[in-house]
Every structure is written in C-alpha cells, then in structure tokens.
C-alpha cells in the first residue's frame, strides 16, 4: 500500500497550497532559458519556505504558519480536457513500475508468506505486531521509499491536474507575478502591458479560465536582471523607479546568471531542479506533441516542464503560452479511449525520452549565490506580498460577513455560540432535491464564507477554516445547493482532522456524504475520487483499515478501469494490514485489481497483481482459482513478451490435477502450445526444453535387454523367457536366482562368491545398484509409463529415446579404455522412432522404445524426446466415437505441436544400513538406465515341440526340444537347471542318437521295449549305475547337462533332442521352471555366461495309487536255493476321475530296483495275465523277491512282465525318472554317513551297533509299476504310458507312491484315509506334517531287536508211532538259525516251556524237548546254522513245535540289547498212532 516519507498531515497540506500566476515578457523568459528552465521552473525548488511565518487572524491573534508551500505557474487560458487528464494519469501509472532487482516485502501471515513490494519486511509470528512495528519504523525513516509508487504518482498527478471549479476557491489564483527583464528598452512600459494583459484575462468575458480568488488580485512586479550580460546600474535605477511606483512591498529585483554560460564547468553546482523535472518529463511528452510553443503548466507544475524553447517571437511582444492548455489533445485523437492500450507507446520510446530529458543540465549560469537570491526572492514575496494580502483579504471578508449578517462580533468570536446551541437536523441525501445546478452570484454571502474558509485553510488556520466550512455547509444545505454543500463537507472534514491538538474526532460521515453527493447527485467522479483519496489516507493513519477499504471499494465503477484498479489494489493492502489480516480478501481484491488493470491496458501492473494473489491461492487446493490465475499470468506475460514466464504459468495449469472441463483443458493446452511455439522459435538451435505433458512415472520405467519373444508356430512353442508383458513376482524372481546360482556353481565346480544373477528386465523391484549389461546388436527396450492427466487426448509424434554414449573397448587387451571412434551417433546406437502415440483422456499408457547398440561402451539413457500436440474433434472423429479408440495413422492433429523432451530421473532406494543412513535421508543409485554394452555373446533360442499341457499323474510323454543358436558366436556348456528334475529327462548317454522326427515317433512307445519270448512270469535281469542318470554322484540333481552333439552349437545351427516328461504325482496345476545355461567359447570380461528361462505349465489329473509292503518269507531258502527271500504285496488302485476320459488302466510290468534285492516271480497269478483296472477298482499283486548274491555298486533291475513287451527298466526314460524321483533318499544316506563319521569314538561303537541292528529290518527295495491307460478322446482311442514308484525301507511297513499320501496315512490311519479319499476325491493334499528325523536313535526299537535272527523248524508234518510198542514217541526236529545282520551274533536257545497260565501248561505239558534245555551258538555275519533237537510225545494229537525261545545279542556288546526274537509261524505236527 502507499506509504510516504511525510505524514498524513503533511500530505494534506501539500495537496492544497496558494497558487500564484506568472506573466513573463519574452526577454525575461529568454534570460531564464539560458538555464534550460522557464521562469516558473526556475523558482520551483525554492517555493517551500524553510522558516516559520507569522500573521494575525481577524481577532488579531498571532497565527504561526509552518512549512508553507506556494506554487508559481504560467497562466493557462484553456481548462484541461477530461480525455487529456486520463491520458496523463495513464502515462504516470505506466512508467511507474516496481524497481527491478530489489528484494520484495515478505509478510508472514499464518501459513502465508507474501512478497509485497520493493523492500524486505520479514515478520515472524505473531506476525501483525512485529510487522506493524517494522512498518512504523519505516514510516519514520527518511530512507523509506513508497511501496506503490505508481499510486503515489497517480494521486499527485490527479490532485494537480484537477481543473478549477466555481463552487470552491481552494485552487484559484491568489496573486500574479509580472516579470520583466532589466534589458528591456522600457521595463516600466512592459510592466504596464503585462498588468493590462492580466486584467484583461481576469475581468473580460473572453477568458473563463483560469479562476481568480478575488477581483483585486495581488500584482507583484519582478525585475529580472542578467548579471552576466546586463548593466547593474541600470537595473538598480529601474528598481528604484519601481519602488516609487509600486511600493517596496510590491516589487523586487531578482539578479540571476552570475556565471556566464561559456564558463567551464569546473565548479560543481547542485541541481535542485532534477528531482522535480526528471519524473515529469516523460509524463508530459505526449501531451505536447501538437507542436504548440507552450509552457506545460497547471496550478502546480511539479510534473510539467517545457520541451521546446520559449523564445519564439509573437506579434504583440508577449508570449502566447496561455492560449491553449498543454493537456489539450490533438483533434484527430479520440478522447474517450485513454483507458485502452491503443494509445500507449512502447516502453522503449518512454525510456528514450526519459534519457534525453534527464541528460539536459539545468542552471548552468547560476551560482550558489543565485540560488540564495531566488530563495530570498520567494521569501520576500511571501512575507511582504502574499501573506499580508491574504491577511487583509481575510479581514475584509470577515468584516463584510459581519456587516451583512448583522452580527455584533466577529465571525470568529461567535463560533462557539453557533455550535453550542441546538442543531438543526440534517436532511439525508435521499431527501434532498437534485439542485446541483444551483449557482450563486460571485458576491453571495455564502460564497464569501467559503472564500474566507479556503483562505484560512491555505494559511493553515484550520480552526477558523472549519468554522467557516461548517457555517457554509449549513447554508448550502438549507438552499439545497448540493455541489457547494459537498465541497464544504469535504473541506470541513479535512480541516477538522488537521486542527492541532485534535479537539474533535475526524467526521468521517462528512466525507461519506460528500462522496455520495458528488457521485450520485452531481455526477462528478473526479471530485468524489478526490474525497476518497483524502479520506482513505486519514482513515489509514488512524488504523481504520476496514473503513478505508470499504471507502476505496465504493468508488470502483465502470467508467474508469484505471481508477478502479488502483483503488482495489489499495483496498487489498488495507485488508492485509488489518489487526486480523484478511489474507484471502487481499488476494481476491488483488485479482479484481489485476483484471481492471488489464482492461485499462496496464499489462505489467495486471501481471504483478495476479502474481501477488497467486501467493495466497497456491497450494491450498483451490485448483480452479489457481488455473484462472495461472492462465491470466500466462496471457499477460505473453503480451509483455515475457515468454519464459508465460510458458511456466501455462505449464502449472497442465501439470496439476485439473478439475476443469474437457473444453477448458483443451483451450489451456492450445494456448500453451501456441506460446511454447513462440518461445522455441526465438532460439531454434537451443537445447530442447522440458515439456509438462504427459506425466511420466519414472520409477515405473522398465528396461528389457534382448529380443522380443517369438510367437508360437504350430506345435512349436518358444521358451517363455522374460518379457515386458510378465508381471514381477518376487517369489519367482528368487527361485530363478537360486537356480542360476546352482547352475553357475555346478559349472564352476564350486560355489561362486559375490554371485550376481543375470538381469534381463529391470524395474522398481529389482536390484539396480550395479550397471546392467547389454550385448552388441541386441536391442534394449525401455518401457516408459505415460499418464495423461487431462480430459483431452494427447498425440505424441516422432517419439524416441534421448541417450548419451561413450564408446569403450572391453577386450582384455585394452582393459576397458576409451578409444576415439570416428563414427556418428546412428552408427553407434540405433533408435526406434514411434511416429504416432495417442494417449486418451486420463489414460496411463506404456510406450516401448528400443535402442540398438552397434558398439561396446557405456550407454546413458537420459529421457524421451517427442512432438506434443493434440487431435481435432475430441468427441467424434470421422464418425467414430472417441471412446472406441483411434486406429494408428488415422489421427488428425490440430496443427499445433511443439518439440521438447522429458528427462527420466529415477530415485534409488533409501539407504537404511548404517546408523548415519538411518538418521538421515540418503538414497542409493538406480542404474537401470545406464547399461554397459558388452561384446557379442551367443544367443540361444529354445523351442518345445508337442509339449503337453495335460498329463495323468505319473504319465510319461516323449517330446522334442529344439536348440537354436541365432547369434554369430558358438555356444557351449549347455545345461538346464530346475527345481523339478523328476519331471523331465533328456535321457542317458546311450540315447544320444539321431532322433526320429516328431511325426514318425508320434505313436511309438516312450520306453525302450523288446518282445517277450517266453510265457513265464519270472523276472528279467539288467543293471545300471546311478552315475549314468545323474544320481549318486554327490552333485546337485537340479543341474542337468544337455547332451549336445560335440557339446558345441555353432552359429546359426539348430539341433532337436528328445525329452521325456513325467506328470507329477500330485494332481493340480504345476509350474516347471527350466533355466538353460550356456557359455561362449571365448571368455569375456564383462559377461561369463547367459541364461534362458522357460516356465512350463502342466495340469495333472489322478491316475493310480500304489501301496506296497514287504514281509519276510518263512523259508530260509527258496526252491532254487537262491538264499534269503521276501514276499512283496503290491496294491494298485485306479483313482482316476471320469472327467479325464480314461477308460481303464493296464498294469503291464512291475520292476524292482535295488542293490540287495530283486523281484523273482509273481505268486498265485490268475489265469488272466492282463491286469485291468476300471474306475475305482483295486488290484493286489503278490511278488516274491530274493536277495542278490553279488553285492555290487550298480543297481539291479528286475522286470516282471504282464504284457507282451518287456520295458527295459534300466534304461531311459524309466530309470531316469526313477533315480530323479529319489534325490532326497540319496542325500539322506550321504547325510547319515557324514553324521556317523563325525561322531566321537566312544559313542561311535554304540551307534554302529544300533545301525547294524536297524539294518536287519531294512529292505531298500524300490518298486516301479509301469502301466498303460486307454483314453477315448475325439472318438479316438489313445494309449498313455506311465510309471509309479514305491520305496520300501522297512520290513512290514507299508509304503505309498506319494509322499503326501503317506503322510496322511500316518496321521489318519487306514480306515480314515480311505474314508477321506472317498468323500473328497478332488481335495488338494498338503504336506503339513513334520518330516521324519534322520538322526540315529540312542536305543533300537523292539521291532529292530527282534529281527536279528530268523528261525525255522524243519520236521515231518505227520509222524506215525506205535504207542503200544513204545510209550514215548521221539521226533527229530532241525532248528535253522539265520543271522540277518552284518555282525557276529550270540544266540541262546531256551527249550524250556514258559508257563504263564494253566492252559498253556496243559497244552505244552503234552510234549517235551529231550536233551539240553539251553544252547549257546555264535553266528557269523549272514551265517545259517542247524541245530538238531528231539521232541518227545506221549499221546497222539496235533502239537505246536514253535515253543523254543531264541535270545540274541551282538557279540561285542553287553546284554543291554538282548531280547527275544520273533517266533515263526505256528509249527504244527500231527502224531498218529499205529
């Protein structure tokens, strides 16, 4: 708001001061022009008196006048035109702008920091009091400058340019100076002519302007003497003559130009005129373009100086400068359009004229003595001429009023009486008639009172002035002369405020009434505006900011945009200065002021207002208000050619989440594109600037290295690998990383330290702390996430990546040193360009941009570059609704598009490892956009041919895999890693043959088969080593070598290998991950290997479930004498559901696999050798197994065939799947062995004993059930093959083909398991039980201890004896003892009957054993011993001979483990009598 160095009282005093006219002869004017100044300008700096002045009031009381200021002006005979005044005021505001480069005021109000103007006022909370203190300090400071100088300049110019009026005398001329040069031939004659001219101007009807205070105007005769050129004696003599004629108080001799103009400027003389003339020179330039040789003047010439010389001769010897007012407009101009922009000139011409005028020196012929002479001249004129004349006039008026009113005392003494009595109630404005046209004659008493009041006001006698104004006001109101009454009210209010000691409060209602009268009744807005300007300053000085703001707002009308803008701006500052600042009202009224400034053509001021208001609205959620302000700022900045600011403002509209309608957003966008295009045309070769649209989510940027995946071709399916279409899964990512780490460790024969997985796709979840690796001639795809925040579509054309590349050679010879390459950018990096990319309204769309590196080096992807535009017809295009989408190449741009860029700046993850990082905010690097381009590497593509998607559990299917090297480098070391190695195999070394084509092998068996030549069901033997199938070697079974011919795949070559797939044992959907690993023959420093991923999805359905149990045979030897044997019972059940379309299952072969046991034959086979199982049917097989005679490292395979063909189970793929289905068993064995070797020596023997005892019950026999399933599909019968595995560990313990089912069986039991299986056949099985512990128990179980010795009694089943001949029947019995363990065993045979009950005694008492009752035998490992016994019978009957009790313990152990051995089956003998 406007703040001044002077107080409000000083401002009001300087607004009204005595006016003195000046008439100069041409010679006198010529003498003054030697200093580039007119006479009035010459005396201007000295028109304020520095000393106090005394005068007496009508009561003869001494009155003191301080700092009196007078104005000396040339006579202007034409009043200024209203249009000229508007033009002047417009110019004043235009050239008065905030100083550039100065710090703005910062006022803190709550959450707001407001930059106000050109001085820094930083206040803290509580903001108002401290800000007010600062402001008061600035008010009293002599160094404080106005915060709104344009308003100050406007106000001063407005008050000075007001034309004189008949209803008031405050701006009428009080006196007239007649100035004649001493070099005139006859100066006295010249004085006479000037006096007559003044009399003619004042009293003839020819001139109605200027206005004169009283008919008898004071004439003051000044003789101007040029010291450097004139004769001083002549001047003195003329002056003496003048004193005789006019009196000593009516004339003066002024001597100037003591220094000749041709003297050197060695003496530095101050220039007091510059401060008055510099600011006014520009304002008046356009007012004088009519070429009239006039002096620019008014009642105060503070703002006017001449631009032309005044030495032009006129016919009558007098200057004709009073003929026309300087604000007279040219007739060709339109006086009603000065609030617009048409008449304004550019700032350049204004500055140029300013520079010209300010460079003109003033007072070159004057010395400091001359300055004192001029100052003395003004003081003498005021002391001796002006003030006595005013004092005399006041007395005369006072006497006239007393005589006419018939009063007994002076008006001054009667004031109290008038105002102490009863008051007449004043009428309201609405009750008064419109009598503004009433005119009083000049001699009317009411006007004399007003005239006296104005004179008292001019000489600072405010108390007497107030009394007169108040008296005149009542008279005018009684006469309903509203114009006169309003003027009296206005000056009465000002007089009341200026009275010393403030005897009465400021009557603000006087001003309100005057303003309303001027505006509504008199229709005189200039007078109303003057009231508002004066009253507002008074109210603000009393901290009545709310009332001041209301007063200022009242005068904002449509007739003057400039005035409304200035007053609204001042009202806004009033709101911010209130005790409780109204920040939002401040902003709102600044917006209104900016709008009116814009209408008035004041673009800079409009822009400033909007920018100040933006501080309040910004960031407060008022998006529509922000959009409006930014849009206006953009337009105003563009009009002022501040293009960067315009672009910035429009950018804010577009990047915020706008709530505008689609049409409005489209308008904003078009405006932005137009402005931006103008900016880019200024510097077409400059760097591409940043574009605000569309929004880019940099953190969602993904980078993919490699070619796109090939689509499927018929039965050929390419490896899935990695693509940008796949969603990131952290669990899968970790699985792939583990697989790659395993295969790298297997390839290097040891674990790799600081292993870093290969990264093909980088995103926000991947580890981007290291530089990714790309390969020469392989594309790099960058997926950028664009978001269109607008409701109108955006069209991006010529979209491509912006990059920087530094060539480097990474070969071992150069060690990565840079080398200068004389190639252009396209030869190093090829970039894909998307010609058209449309983003619909509020759409997020991904753009995939590719780079093709042709050289090794370091690549940095900086951002994207594109042309931004929009399309025509956002609703319907060529009859197609936009909601349907646009076809590529069919977009119709609206003609405006701009070229720009957006950078991809990705913030890395926040660091949170060290204490320093935890206590501060630090971010790590994100280098996904900074790949290193490595040397050429081999590139493998894998195709799966006829790969199944649905299988039965355990089903075997033969497919083919094609490996193709599409690079220019040979590859080697091809391996595949998988977490499910039991589901596939490439076959053993014997299968590397030229494979059949997939079509010819479509109906052939997946197994290697031979025709069965015999009809026996005895087993056929074969053997195989686990090493041949990747098991038992201690290596990770998840890593499998792919049997490439010669282990190398040459560039461009391809090979097809057979691969067998086995359906997992659990039903459901299974994902099998294949990780193909390969290397280049040539070792590279940056990249040692490459991998290719494939995920196969297989859906399995139920087929068979197999259960098996092994029991020891009673016979110690079979019929063939092949040693120990067992019976194996195998239960096979068809649990397939009808949805799978399986008609029936055929069990075609059962094979065994073990190092110790082999299946020998099938027992009790029915005549129908083909075992068929329909839905839910169960079959039971009883198989005999014998111990292998020769213990070998190889596994013995024995096949029992039920069909016509033998499947050789020891070859691929049968053996492969068997071995791969049991990796945990091999690991468990190795773990146990390592645990045993790590035990202490004291405990080792005990553990070995336990282990030996346990091994007696271990079988380690594996059963493989091979089957065929007949399936009806598409009216065709298909034959499916498969196999199930059962691992038998312990004698008598049931085993299952599925680990999960075995776990449920343990928990639920047989009956519950069967019930569960029947009730919920589709139930998914989960293995939630704890696995068995593999540690060695401290004490063997009774079952294990009772299995050390296998016993068998050999005796005749029937024995005939003649009891009549011999009463005792003795039968020889042979007891066979077989040591089942691998250690020596001490055996005790006790033949005594154990009597536990009378019944038992009765039974066993019928026979007895003869001979020793106890035997001790030591059996070596696996030894069979025979003991001859005799049983004695006394009666015929059936007897059980199985009464001997056998105790066993290890020979080297104490009897801690001694326990009774299991009895054999009941040994019944029949004793017959003959």
The radius of gyration over CA amounts to 60 Å
Distance between the termini: 148 Å
Structural class: alpha+beta
Task: Label the overall shape.
Answer: rod-shaped
Number of helical segments with 4 or more residues: 34
What does this structure look like?
With 1474 residues, the chain is an alpha+beta fold. The strands form 13 sheets. Strands 12, 25, 27, 29, 31, 34, 39, 41, 43, 45 and 46 form an eleven-stranded antiparallel β-sheet that branches. A hairpin with a 5-residue loop joins strand 2 and strand 3.
Keywords:
single chain, 1474 residues, alpha+beta, 6-stranded antiparallel β-sheet, 30% helix, rod-shaped, 34 helices
Helix-strand layout with pairing:
Blueprint: H1 8-15, E1 19-24, H2 26-33, H3 39-43, E2 53-56, E3 62-65, E4 71-74, H4 82-95, E5 106-109, E6 112-115, H5 127-140, H6 149-160, E7 173-181, H7 187-203, E8 218-226, H8 232-246, E9 251-256, H9 274-281, H10 347-358, H11 368-405, H12 415-420, H13 445-458, H14 462-478, H15 482-498, H16 508-521, H17 525-541, H18 545-554, H19 561-576, H20 583-599, H21 603-617, H22 623-639, H23 643-655, H24 662-682, E10 695-696, E11 702-705, E12 716-718, H25 730-748, E13 761-762, E14 773-775, E15 780-787, E16 794-807, H26 825-828, E17 829-831, E18 834-839, E19 844-853, E20 857-871, E21 876-877, E22 880-881, E23 893-903, H27 915-919, E24 932-934, E25 940-945, E26 950-952, E27 955-965, E28 971-977, E29 984-985, E30 1009-1011, E31 1020-1024, E32 1039-1041, E33 1048-1049, E34 1054-1062, E35 1068-1080, E36 1090-1101, E37 1104-1112, E38 1125-1134, E39 1142-1154, E40 1157-1162, E41 1171-1173, E42 1178-1187, E43 1195-1201, E44 1205-1207, H28 1214-1220, H29 1223-1237, H30 1241-1255, E45 1258-1273, E46 1276-1290, E47 1295-1296, H31 1299-1308, H32 1310-1319, H33 1342-1345, ...
Parallel strand pairs: 1-4, 1-7, 7-8, 8-9, 14-24, 26-36, 49-58
Antiparallel strand pairs: 2-3, 5-6, 10-15, 11-13, 11-15, 12-25, 15-19, 16-18, 16-20, 17-19, 20-23, 20-24, 21-22, 25-27, 27-34, 27-46, 28-32, 28-33, 28-35, 29-34, 30-44, 31-43, 35-36, 37-38, 37-47, 38-42, 39-41, 39-43, 39-45, 40-42, 45-46, 48-50, 50-54, 51-53, 51-56, 52-54, 55-58, 56-57
Helix pairs in contact: 4-6, 9-10, 11-13, 13-14, 14-15, 15-16, 16-17, 17-18, 18-19, 19-20, 20-21, 21-22, 22-23, 23-24, 31-32
């Amino acid at each position: 708001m406007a703040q001044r160095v002077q107080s409000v009282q000083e401002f009001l005093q300087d607004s009204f001061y005595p006016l003195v006219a000046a008439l100069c002869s041409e010679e006198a004017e010529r003498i003054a022009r030697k200093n580039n100044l007119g006479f009035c300008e010459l005396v201007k700096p000295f028109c304020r008196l520095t000393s106090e002045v005394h005068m007496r009031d009508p009561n003869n009381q001494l009155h003191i006048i301080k700092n009196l200021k007078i104005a000396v002006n040339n006579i202007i005979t034409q009043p200024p035109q209203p249009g000229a005044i508007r033009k002047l005021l417009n110019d004043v505001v235009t050239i008065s702008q905030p100083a550039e480069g100065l710090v703005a005021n910062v006022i803190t109000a709550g959450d707001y920091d407001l930059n106000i103007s050109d001085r820094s006022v930083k206040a803290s909370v509580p903001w108002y009091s401290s800000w007010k203190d600062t402001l008061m300090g600035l008010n009293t400071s002599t160094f404080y400058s106005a915060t709104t100088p344009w308003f100050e300049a406007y106000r001063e110019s407005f008050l000075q340019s007001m034309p004189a009026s008949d209803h008031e005398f405050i701006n009428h001329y009080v006196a007239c100076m007649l100035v004649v040069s001493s070099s005139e031939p006859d100066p006295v004659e010249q004085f006479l002519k000037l006096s007559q001219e003044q009399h003619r101007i004042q009293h003839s009807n020819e001139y109605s302007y200027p206005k004169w205070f009283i008919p008898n105007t004071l004439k003051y005769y000044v003789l101007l003497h040029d010291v450097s050129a004139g004769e001083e004696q002549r001047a003195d003599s003329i002056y003496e003559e003048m004193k005789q004629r006019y009196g000593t108080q009516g004339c003066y001799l002024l001597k100037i130009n003591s220094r000749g103009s041709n003297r050197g400027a060695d003496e530095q003389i101050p220039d007091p005129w510059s401060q008055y003339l510099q600011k006014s020179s520009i304002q008046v330039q356009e007012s004088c373009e009519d070429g009239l040789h006039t002096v620019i003047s008014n009642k105060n010439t503070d703002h006017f100086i001449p631009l032309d010389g005044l030495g032009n001769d006129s016919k009558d010897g007098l200057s004709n400068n009073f003929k026309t007012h300087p604000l007279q407009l040219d007739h060709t101009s339109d006086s009603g359009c000065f609030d617009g922009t048409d008449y304004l000139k550019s700032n350049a011409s204004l500055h140029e004229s300013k520079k010209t005028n300010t460079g003109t020196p003033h007072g070159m012929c004057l010395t400091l003595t001359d300055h004192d002479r001029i100052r003395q001249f003004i003081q003498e004129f005021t002391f001796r001429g002006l003030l006595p004349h005013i004092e005399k006039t006041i007395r005369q008026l006072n006497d006239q009023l007393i005589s006419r009113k018939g009063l007994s005392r002076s008006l001054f003494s009667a004031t109290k009486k008038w105002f102490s009595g009863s008051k007449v109630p004043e009428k309201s404005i609405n009750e008064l008639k419109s009598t503004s046209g009433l005119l009083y004659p000049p001699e009317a008493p009411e006007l004399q009172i007003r005239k006296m009041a104005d004179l008292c006001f001019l000489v600072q006698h405010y108390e007497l002035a107030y009394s007169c104004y108040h008296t005149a006001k009542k008279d005018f109101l009684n006469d309903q002369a509203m114009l006169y009454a309003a003027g009296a009210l206005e000056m009465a209010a000002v007089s009341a405020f200026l009275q010393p000691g403030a005897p009465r409060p400021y009557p603000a209602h006087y001003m309100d009434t005057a303003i309303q009268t001027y505006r509504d009744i008199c229709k005189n807005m200039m007078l109303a505006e003057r009231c508002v300007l004066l009253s507002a300053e008074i109210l603000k000085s009393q901290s009545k900011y709310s009332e001041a703001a209301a007063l200022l707002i009242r005068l904002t009308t449509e007739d003057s945009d400039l005035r409304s803008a200035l007053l609204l701006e001042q009202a806004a500052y009033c709101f911010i200065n209130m005790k409780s600042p109204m920040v939002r009202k401040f902003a709102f009224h600044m917006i209104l002021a900016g709008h009116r400034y814009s209408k008035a053509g004041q673009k800079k001021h409009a822009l400033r207002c909007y920018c100040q208001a933006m501080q309040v609205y910004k960031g407060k959620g008022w998006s529509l208000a922000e959009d409006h302000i930014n849009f206006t700022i953009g337009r105003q900045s563009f009009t002022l050619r501040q293009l960067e600011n315009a672009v910035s403002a429009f950018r804010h509209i577009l990047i915020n989440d706008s709530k505008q309608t689609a049409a409005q957003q489209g308008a904003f966008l078009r405006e932005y594109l137009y402005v931006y295009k103008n900016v880019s045309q200024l510097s077409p070769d400059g760097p591409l600037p940043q574009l605000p649209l569309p929004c880019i989510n940099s953190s969602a940027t993904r980078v993919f290295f490699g070619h796109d995946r090939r689509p499927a071709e018929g039965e050929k399916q390419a490896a899935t690998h990695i693509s940008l279409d796949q969603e990131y899964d952290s669990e899968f990512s970790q699985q792939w990383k583990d697989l790659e780490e395993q295969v790298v460790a297997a390839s290097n024969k040891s674990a790799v330290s600081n292993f870093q997985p290969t990264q093909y796709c980088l995103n926000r979840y991947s580890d981007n702390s290291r530089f990714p690796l790309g390969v020469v001639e392989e594309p790099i795809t960058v997926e950028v996430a664009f978001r269109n925040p607008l409701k109108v579509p955006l069209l991006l054309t010529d979209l491509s990546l912006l990059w920087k590349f530094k060539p480097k050679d990474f070969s071992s010879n150069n060690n990565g040193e840079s080398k200068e390459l004389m190639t252009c950018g396209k030869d190093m990096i090829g970039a894909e360009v998307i010609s058209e990319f449309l983003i619909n309204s509020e759409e997020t769309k991904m753009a995939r941009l590719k780079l093709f590196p042709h050289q090794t080096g370091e690549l940095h992807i900086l951002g994207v570059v594109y042309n931004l535009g929009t399309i025509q017809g956002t609703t319907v295009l060529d009859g197609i609704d936009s909601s349907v989408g646009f076809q590529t190449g069919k977009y119709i741009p609206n003609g405006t598009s701009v070229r720009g860029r957006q950078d991809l700046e990705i913030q890395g993850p926040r660091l949170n490892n060290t204490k320093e990082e935890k206590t501060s905010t630090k971010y790590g690097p994100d280098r996904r956009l900074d790949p290193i381009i490595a040397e050429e590497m081999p590139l493998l593509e894998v195709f799966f041919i006829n790969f199944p998607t649905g299988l039965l559990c355990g089903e075997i299917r033969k497919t083919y895999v094609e490996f193709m090297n599409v690079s220019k480098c040979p590859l080697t070391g091809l391996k595949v890693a998988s977490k499910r190695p039991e589901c596939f195999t490439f076959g053993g070394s014997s299968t590397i043959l030229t494979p059949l084509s997939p079509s010819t092998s479509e109906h052939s068996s997946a197994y290697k088969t031979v025709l069965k030549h015999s009809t026996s069901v005895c087993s056929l033997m074969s053997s195989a080593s686990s090493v041949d199938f990747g098991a038992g070697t201690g290596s990770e079974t998840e890593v499998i070598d792919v049997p490439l011919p010669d282990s190398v795949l040459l560039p461009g070559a391809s090979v097809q290998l057979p691969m067998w797939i086995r359906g997992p044992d659990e039903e459901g959907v299974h994902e099998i991950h294949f990780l193909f690993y390969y290397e280049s023959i040539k070792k590279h420093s940056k990249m040692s290997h490459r991998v290719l991923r494939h995920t196969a999805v297989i859906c399995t359905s139920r087929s068979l479930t197999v259960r098996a149990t092994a029991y020891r045979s009673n016979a110690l030897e079979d019929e063939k004498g092949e040693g120990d044997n067992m019976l194996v019972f195998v239960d096979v059940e068809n649990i397939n559901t009808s949805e799978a379309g399986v008609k029936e299952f055929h069990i075609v072969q059962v094979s065994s696999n073990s190092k110790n046991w082999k299946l020998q034959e099938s027992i009790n086979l029915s005549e129908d050798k083909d075992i068929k199982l329909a839905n839910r049917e169960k079959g039971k097989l009883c198989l005999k197994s014998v111990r292998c005679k020769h213990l070998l490292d190889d596994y013995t395979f024995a096949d029992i065939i039920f069909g016509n063909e033998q499947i050789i189970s020891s070859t691929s793929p049968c053996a492969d799947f068997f071995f791969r289905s049991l990796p945990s068993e091999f690991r468990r064995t190795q773990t146990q062995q390592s645990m045993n070797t790590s035990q202490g020596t004291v405990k080792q023997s005990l553990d070995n004993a336990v282990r030996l005892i346990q091994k007696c019950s271990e079988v380690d026999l594996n059963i493989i059930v091979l089957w065929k399933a007949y399936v009806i599909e598409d009216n065709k019968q298909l034959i499916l093959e498969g196999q199930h595995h059962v691992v038998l560990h312990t004698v008598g313990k049931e085993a299952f083909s599925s680990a999960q089912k075995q776990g449920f069986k343990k928990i639920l039991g047989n009956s519950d398991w069967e019930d569960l299986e029947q009730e919920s056949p589709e139930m998914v099985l989960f293995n939630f039980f704890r696995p068995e512990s593999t540690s060695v128990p401290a004490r063997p179980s009774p079952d294990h201890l009772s299995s050390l010795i296998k016993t068998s009694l050999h005796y005749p089943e029937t024995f005939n004896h003649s009891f009549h001949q011999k009463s005792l029947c003795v039968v020889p019995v042979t007891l066979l003892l077989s040591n089942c363990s691998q250690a020596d065993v001490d055996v005790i045979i006790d033949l005594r009957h154990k009597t536990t009950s009378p019944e038992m005694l009765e039974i066993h008492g019928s026979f007895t054993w003869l001979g020793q009752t106890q035997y001790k035998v030591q059996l070596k490992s696996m030894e069979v011993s025979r003991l001859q016994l005799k049983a004695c019978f006394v009666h015929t009957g059936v007897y059980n001979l199985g009464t001997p009790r056998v105790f066993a313990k290890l020979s080297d152990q104490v009897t801690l483990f001694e326990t009774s051995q299991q009895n054999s089956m009941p040994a019944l003998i029949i004793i017959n009598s003959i």
